[in-house]
Each structure stands twice: as structure tokens, then as C-alpha cells.
Amino acid sequence: MFDIKSVYEASSVSDAVNHLKQDEDAIVVCGGTDVLIRVREGKDAGKALVSVHNLAEIKGITMDSNENIIIGAGTCFYNITNNDIIKANLLSLGEACDTVGGPQIRQTGTIGGNICNGATSADSASTMRALDAEIVCVGPNGERTVPISEWYTGPGKTVRDRCEVVTKFIIKKENYKGYFGYYSKYGKRNAMEIATLGCSVLVKLSGDKSTIEDVKIAYGVAAPVPSRAPSAESFAKGKSISDENMYIEFGKKALSDMNPRDSWRASKEFREQLIKELATRSLKEAVRRAGGKI
Amino acid sequence: MASKSFIKFNVNGRDVEVPFDERESLYDTLRNQLDLTSVKKGCEVGECGACSVLINGRCVDTCIYLTKWAEGKSIVTVEGLKDEKGDLTDVQKQFIKEAAVQCGFCTPGFILKAVEIVGDNKPYTRDEIKKLIAGNLCRCTGYMNIVTAIEHAIYNNMKKQGKDYKLADNYKVYLDQGEEAKNKMTDELLLHQEAKDAQVVKEIFNNK
């Protein structure tokens, strides 16, 4: 038995928003793999849950006529990893989702919850950040779209109002077409582990596959919120992929953009080493995937 | 105050309607209302997998799954497993054969996870099996026998479906992955199969 006031199973997104508005103690729950654990820990004890668990309207992955990819916020990690659109276009996002918790968690945990809980360690968040995903949420004042760059406001905090429900994520065509990605997760265990550091790289090579046309790099746990490393990105643009030093320099530049901290999981110094190392490795792997010969 | 209500779902092939408190997690309901005590209460935070059941064919931790969410869904626990003759399923038989059970607390969760894995009707390598059972913890067996039992159940299922699949294929993938992987493969193979599957060992080494 959970220490909660009540559970309301919403019949639609707008129904959920109405119920969230009516009760000040109400919080939204979807997969439950974070919220119910917070309840068990006593952090969210006594809350009224408004559940969007079984809402078909926020599940599924589609591609619209402009080739933008739309991911329903209620889609579980397992269904993202095994979706054909994701496999063909956003492979690194699918792989990142495949590193969350364990298999059972990935059956119920959703990408919407992963982004909404605001954790810097969220495995899908760094790749979504690299993809410049747009977040669509519905609240009492209607629908709004927030770019992920403006989403996070601090550790565990986002611009989402308590009464708002995130319904979907939009990945624009120009942000994924031609890009190849790689997500590295460092943790002490291979499964059931919260990332000590996560690094997601997306790279687009020039026509002859000899230089980097564009690169995006985003980290989890390297700063209070999932963050991009702009100086590393601008440094690597136009550089030759066969220059070994470029990869090492790329890592150093990325470190200059980051602000890791000490925690019980790892020291600041260790995280700094990881920031450099994972940037180098992920970029190399992404370049290989893009067909570059290093 | 939270209200009592009724939920309708299908448990082990039977449509049931049971009273529940809406604050209950599914394992509370399965254990307390339906006496399905194979569903074990372990960590209560979705880490150990002892409370796993199949919901619409997929393995889910019931300790962090509200009973309310199961409305209209189909649930399978170990009590509901049987083959066409009413006997133990092949997965269960393989667990017994390979001694993949010690204290038994984690076993129902592992069995259901294995049923899901076998039900995918495709071959998995040992490494893939290890990843697939990463959501279930066992403190006794050291996992090796569990992986082997699942491996054999997959093999038997593939055979039953008439698919051309050799157990040795599971090890051959390691041959192309360098010296370290090759040694690991040899170690694992010899460690758990000894004389039992001598044929498999022979086949691989002959093909080397």
C-alpha cells in the first residue's frame, strides 16, 4: 500500500489538467518508476496522484509530413528502443533509453517522466538536449511548446507547472537528418545504475566524409542540468576527422564548458576526467557510425 | 479517504473481479486478494525483480505498479504456467535441470522473465541474456546456471518452432571478438556445461 491520498485515472490529458488544478496536493504520474519510489521514500507521501498511465493519446512514435519525429511523452523506454522510426533515424536515443534502470523499469518508465523529473542524470535527457527536442505541454492555459534549452531551471527543476502535462516531444528534421549519434554512459554497474556521467554526441560529416560539418555534444551529470558544450562544438566544426589530436582537444574544450560536482557517486576530479574521455570516445564512435575512416 | 472499488482483469487465463484499495500496488492485490504468493515482495522499489509478473505478455515489477493500471489487462504469474499437457513448462524444467534455483525467492521473477525472453522467438547470446535478466537479482546461484537454463529453453523453443538454430551459435559470435572474448567464451562454456554438452564444445572447437 502506498502512502498516498488518492489516485485518479485520467480519461484524457485535459481531464488530468482539470484534476491537477482542483487539488493542490495533486501530482501527475505516468510510468510511476520515479514518482512511486519518491512516495516510498516519503518525499511525495500524502500526495494525490493524477495518473496518465493508460492514456493512448500520449503514447507512440510518428513521423509527420515534414519528417519531424514526434515521440509521445507516455511512450515507455522499451517501446522507444524497439521502434522502427527510432532505429532508422535516432539510433543513439534508442540506445540511451536502453540504458535506463533494468528491463522491467524500461517496460513502464516513460521518456516524459525522464524529462519532467528534471534530473541531470536522466539517460534520455542528454541525447534529447543534443537533438534540440521541443517539449509540448498542456496546462490550464492551453498548450505551449518549450525548447529543451529553456526547459531546465536547476537540479530536479523544470519550467513545467505542477498543473501541466507534457504530451509529446518534437525532434525537427534539420536536427537529426544526416546526423549520427553515440551515447556513452559511465556507471559503476552495467545495469540498474544511475549514470556517474553520460555523454551524447551527434555528428554530421561533409560529403566526402573527411571533415566534421556539424557536431552537437550534451552531457548528463556534468553540470546541475543536462548541458551542451558550445565551445567544443564550435571548435570541432570543419576539422579533419583523421586528426587524432582533434579528438583530445575536443574533450578539453568540452570540459571548459562544464561544471561537475562532488557527490557520493564520484568526485569532481573523476567526473572531469570522464568529461574529457567520454567526449573523445563518443565523438570517435559517432564519426565511425557516420562512415568516417579514422 | 481513498475509496474501495473493484477491478476487472484476467489473471492466469481467468477473468476476475476483485475488491481493492486504490492505493494498492499490484502485488498487494495479487498476494492478498488472489493468494498468488509466487509474487514476492522484495525491495519494493523496482530493483530486485522478485515481484515481476507478465502484464499483457511483458515483464513488469508489480511493486511499483498501481493495481488500478491493470484494469482490463491480462496478467500471468508462475501459478498460471503450464504446458499443453498441464505439466511444467520447458522454462521451469530447464531451471530444475540446470539447478538454477537455490533458496527460490527470486525464482518466480526469473521464470517469468525467462518466459518473456523465450516468447520473443529469437536467439539470444549469453551476453544478451545477461542484459535481459539484469532487472532480477539473485543472491544464491551466481547467475551462471540461470543463464544456462534460459539458453537451453530458448534452444528448445527454437527447435520446436522448426527453426534452424544450434546452441553452438551462441558461442561462435565470441570467436570473432578477439582473444579476450574467446577466452571468456571458453571459460563459460567449460564452467557450466562440463560433460553435459560435450557435443556443443566439440562442435565449436572443430569449427575454429
Please, could you describe this protein's structure?
- The complex is a heterodimer of chains A (294) and B (208).
- The model of chain A has no long low-confidence stretch (mean pLDDT 96).
- The radius of gyration of chain A is 19 Å and the shape is globular.
- Chain A folds into 3 domains: 6-51, Uridine Diphospho-n-acetylenolpyruvylglucosamine Reductase, domain 2 (2-Layer Sandwich); 60-174, Uridine Diphospho-n-acetylenolpyruvylglucosamine Reductase, domain 3, CATH 3.30.465.10; 179-289, CO dehydrogenase flavoprotein, C-terminal domain (Enolase-like, domain 1), CATH 3.30.390.
- Chain A has helices spanning 13-22, 35-41, 77-81, 84-89, 91-97, 103-108, 111-116, 123-130, 173-176, 230-236, 244-257, 268-289; strands spanning 6-9, 26-29, 48-51, 61-63, 69-72, 134-139, 142-147, 152-154, 157-158, 165-171, 180-186, 197-205, 212-220, 227-228.
- In chain A, the strands form 4 sheets. A 5-stranded antiparallel sheet of chain A has the order 4-5-10-6-7. A 4-stranded antiparallel sheet of chain A has the order 11-12-13-14.
- The termini of chain A are far apart.
- Chain A is of the alpha+beta class.
- Chain B has 2 domains: 4-80, Ubiquitin-like (UB roll), CATH 3.10.20; 90-207, DNA polymerase, domain 1 (Orthogonal Bundle).
- Helix content of chain B is 41%, strand content 13%.
- Chain B has a 5-stranded mixed sheet with strand order 2-1-5-3-4, covered by helices on one side.
- In chain B, strand 3 and strand 4 (58-61) form a beta hairpin.
- In chain B, 44% of the residues are buried.
- At the A-B interface, strand 1, helix 2 and helix 6 of A face strand 4 of B.
